[in-house]
Amino acid sequence: MDQFVSPKNIFHGKGSIERLRDILNEEQVKKVVLITDPMLKKLEVINPVLQLLDQEKADVDIITNVVPEPPLKVGNEVVDEVRSKQADLVIGVGGGSALDLAKAASVLAENEGIVEDFLNLSGTKKPEAKGLPKVLIPTTSGTGAEVTDIAVFSLEDTKDVITHENLLADYAIVDPVLTYTLPSKVTAASGVDAFTHALEAYTSVNATPLTDTLAIDAMKRIIGNLRTAVWNGKDEYAREQMSLGSLIAGLSFYNAGVAGVHGLAYPLGGLFKIPHGESNAVLLPYVYDYIWPASLNKMVKVAEIFNLPTEGKSDRQLAIDVVQSLQDLVKDVGLPTKLQEYSIKEDDIERLAQNGVEQKRLLNRSPKKLDLDLIRKIYQNAYDGKLLSD
Q: Which residue ranges does the record assign to the Alcohol dehydrogenase iron-type/glycerol dehydrogenase GldA domain (predicted)?
C-alpha cells in the first residue's frame, strides 16, 4: 500500500505571499522569528514579507546567521536564538539552507538537546514535541525544502540530516515573484537541483504511480523553462513555471526519495564546500551513465520529455541519448561538468568514494546497487569529464 505525505497547507502562485495574513490570524500570532540569508535582507528580497508582517502588527525578530551548507555550529546557534525569543511562529525565507535551519530550529526549540543529538547517521534522539508552527517561503526554484521534513547539515567531510515528520511545514508559500531577481548562476544550480529531484524520484525504487505523475510533470516544466529562466531572468512565465516545477518535484521526491546523485553529492559539499545544486549538477550525467539499464523503460519516457529523436533508435540508445542530454543541460546553463573545475584532485577520489558509500539512506533507493567500486568509477568519470559513450 502506497502512502503520500505533504504539508497540510501549500499556497502557490503569483501573490500567494498574501496568504501569510490569514496564517497570522489563524495562528493568533503576536511574535515572529524570521530566519533568512543576510544577502536576501541586504538586497531587500524579504521586504514583501516584512511589510506584510508590519501591516499585521506582528513583532518580528530577524535571524540572519544563515550560511550555505550550514555546519552544526550554525545550526545550534540558530536553535539557541529561537529558543530565547519566545515566539509564536517561525518563518523561513530563502534557499534550502534558510528553510532547513527554520525547520530544525522551530522543532528543536521545544525539544531538549542539540542538533547532533538528532542526526540520522549518528544521533540518538527523535524530536518528541511538535515544535513551533512554521511557515516556509522559498526564494529559489530548486530545493523543494518547503515541502520536505529534512534539514541538512555539513559535517567535517560529508553531510548528515535531521529527518522527522515534525519538521514538515505547517504552511508552505511558493510565490514565484520572490524568485524574479535570482542571479543566473543560482537559477541554474537550483533549477538543475529541482530537475534532479524529479528524475531521481522517478527512477527511485520507492516510486509510485502518484510520484511518477508528479515527477513527469515537474521534468516537463523544468526542461521547458530552465534555460530561459537562467539566461532571461525577466521572463516571468519561465520563472513561474520553474517555481511550480520545483514545488511539484519536491512533493515527488519527498515521497519517493532521491538516491545516488544526492548521495554522492553530499561528500562534495562536505569536503569541498561545493553548493548543493552544483554538486548534484556535476554528478547527474555520470551517475545515470551507469544506472540507466536498471530503469530502461523510464529513461525512454525521459527521452520523450527531452524531445529527443526516436525514429530508428533502440530503447538502449535512447537511454544513452538521455545521459548526453543531462550533460548538455548542465553545460547549457553554465555550470561545470567535471570535478576538475572545482580544483578537486585525482587523489581525492578515494576519499570521496569512501564517504559516498556511507550514504546508505540515499543509495538504498537507487534502481541499481551502487557499491564502492562503482562509486569510485563514477567519481573518476566525473573527474575526467568522460561519459561511457564518449
A: 7-176
Reply yes or no on whether the pLDDT at 385 is more than 80: yes
Quick check: 106 and 169 in contact, CB under 8 A? no
List, in order, residues 6 or more apart from 294 with CB less than 8 Å away. Answer: 203, 366, 367, 368
Query: Which whole number is the average pLDDT over 192-220?
Result: 98
Q: With pLDDT > 70 as the criterion, what percentage of the chain qualifies?
A: 100
Residue 266's φ and ψ, nearest 5 degrees, are -55, -45
Burial 18-27 (b: 16+ CB within 10 A, else e): ebbeebbeeb
Q: Is 36 in a helix, a strand, or coil?
A: strand
Task: Sketch the domain layout of the chain as residue ranges.
Answer: 9-179, 184-384
**What pLDDT, in 10s, does the model give residues 309-326?**
999 999 999 999 999 999
**C-alpha to C-alpha distances, 88 to 60, 109, 318, nearest whole angstrom:** 10, 11, 53
Q: Per the structure block, which three cell numbers stand in for 334?
A: 553554465
CA distance 66 to 135: 17
Of 224, 227, 247, 236, residue with least CA distance to 180: 236
* Distance, CA of 173 to chain centre: 16
At position 180, the amino acid (one-letter code) is Y
> Is the CATH number 3.40.640.10 carried by domain 9-179?
no
* Nine-digit cell string for 223: 526542461
Alpha carbon distance 302, 280 (integer Å): 18
Give CA–CA dist 341/334, Å, rounded.
12
Strand 31-36's sheet: what is its strand order?
A: 9-12, 171-174, 134-138, 89-94, 31-36, 59-63
pLDDT single digits (tens) 350-373: 999 999 999 999 999 999 999 999
CATH number belonging to the domain at 184-384, selected among 1.20.1090.10, 1.10.3470.10, 3.40.50.1000, 3.90.1300.10: 1.20.1090.10
pTM passes above 0.85: yes
Query: 94: part of which helix (H) or strand (E)?
Result: strand 89-94
Query: Is the CB of residue 223 less than 8 Å from the CB of residue 181?
Result: no
